[in-house]
UniProtKB/TrEMBL annotation:
Top-rank taxon, per record: Bacteria
InterPro entries the UniProt entry points to: MobA-like_NTP_Trfase (IPR025877), Nucleotide-diphossugar_trans (IPR029044)
Single GO term (MF): nucleotidyltransferase activity
Protein name: MobA-like NTP transferase domain-containing protein
Organism from which the protein derives: Deinococcus irradiatisoli
Residues of the MobA-like NTP transferase domain: 9-171
Amino acid sequence: MKEFAPVWGVVLAAGQSRRLGQPKQLLRLGGEALVRRAARQVLEAGFDGVVVVVPPGALGEHVRAELAGLPLTLSVCPHPELGLSESFRAGLLALPPGVAAAHFALADMPFVTAEHHRTLLDAFRASQPPLVLARFGDEGVRAPPHLFRADLFGGFTQSGDHGPKHLIREYGPQAVWIDLPAPALRDVDTPQDWADLSAG
């Protein structure tokens, strides 16, 4: 059986939910907090380990409580107010030496399943491209989860509330693209998003 270098999943769950007005990580869908649902799906996909990036302070304690009992590595993002870029770096810092790649997922996309995550993992293991990128629906909307090979980690130099778009631009021509269904793109940013999602 072929041996693979470890590939870890990273769930970004340190956001401040400014537009929503309440911590999205703690919202419950089907009786389960969104952060636990997201972490569980990544765990079930078969990664060699999973990091969940959590906020500091009282909110972080609540998020940790929702994750209790899951075999996770937790990483505190000390400055989530500086944007998503800080969460990416906190996730990278928590990875063990020798990983081949990291797969980044968001805590507020509850319909991205373990099977979806596994599809990206399998695509990486098949040819080890620099990027494995997801796109959703007939329109091909690009959105996480995205998987980055380890030699790209040093390029996570972005700031503000976004991921390493410059790496996606640079290495996009070499990327493997995975098509996921449009309903999996649904996320929670605003009260209306949550109302619509809760209503099914």
